[in-house]
Amino acid sequence: MSRIAYVNGRYVPHASAAVHIEDRGYQFADGVYEVCEVKGGFIIDMRGHLNRLDRSLGELSILWPLHRSALERILAEVVRRNRIRNGLVYLQVTRGVARRDHVFPGPNVRPALVITATRSDPQVSDQMAATGIDVITVPENRWERVDIKTVGLLPNVLARQQAKDAGAQEAWFVDKDGIVLEGSATNAWIVTQDGAIVTRDAERGILRGITRTTLFEVAKKLGLKVVERGFTVDEALMAREAFVTSATKTAISVISINGSSIGNGHPGSVASALRGSFFDVAEKTPA
Ligand code: PDD
Fold it and tell me: Is the pTM of the predicted complex or chain greater than 0.70?
């Protein structure tokens, strides 16, 4: 079955889908995006992702490309047309197409919208959760507004490639005080020796992950305590567990940081419990 993408008002074959060469996303990374997991034919936490999209657009003074309810319908339609039961749906809004000029184009330029959906095998993710991942640390080199989910991801791309080159699967950005911020495409968590679940507060320095927010509720339901505070790489190395979260990974244990084992060197029980209950708590919208 051939894949279908939504591009500025039309459903088109993925293989021939295209945007204009002067799309500001292409020239300036002047755009934002969201990624929602699709699980069992449901879009996960769509409301939370669209609330964050609303915030990202607002922070950059980009208008909604169309009414929110229409966008919700198109997200579901793209999932359906691609017959995705498990995978993800990606949406990107840029400031639109205009002659190259740093200042914003006039009000007649409409924001551009692209939506794609990708299938994935849940067994691959479950296998990753059963094995755990290795993480390296890299110095923070991103701009200060990482709370906005922009398509300007070059530092994240370079960090993830550096992780891959080192035989690891994720890179954690670390600030000049040695505090862990977040991963290249995930939020970072630890479980301390006395059992507290710790993740950095989202007031600044990180993206406020939608998975992160849902996992606060999951933890509450399981009677587990979450503390929002920064932690250092040294503290993470002494932790009982470490894990990462995102819409594409749910929660995956970190078994080593910079080559040093975390805990007993195997995926931990807290990450596994949070992962196990995630879909009981997350919002599910039928596609
Ligand atoms: N990334 N931090 C960063 C830098 C991210 O890019 C992401 C998500 C997260 C986790 O956010 P959420 O739980 O809402 O997915 C944290 C997506 C999955 C991506 O870029 O593919």
Answer: yes
Over residues 182-191, mean pLDDT: 98
- 113 plus 58 within the same structural domain: yes
pLDDT number for residue 14: 97
Of 87, 120, 153, the residue that ends a domain is 120
CA distances from 272 to 47, 73, 168, 267 (A): 25, 33, 20, 7
- For a ligand 1 pocket test, name from 187, 213, 250 the mutation site with the most ligand atoms within 8 angstroms of its C-beta: 187
Active-site entry in 39, 149, 164, 225: 149
Domain residue limits at 113: 4-120
Output the residue whose Cα is nearest ligand 1's atom 17: 185
| Segment holding 73, helix H or strand E | helix 68-81
197 in the same domain as 63:
no
How confident is the prediction for the chain on average, in pLDDT? Answer: 98
Say how far residue 131 (Cα) sits from the centre of its chain.
21
Active site residue 149: yes
**pLDDT higher than 90, residue 108:** yes
Tell me how many domains the chain contains.
2
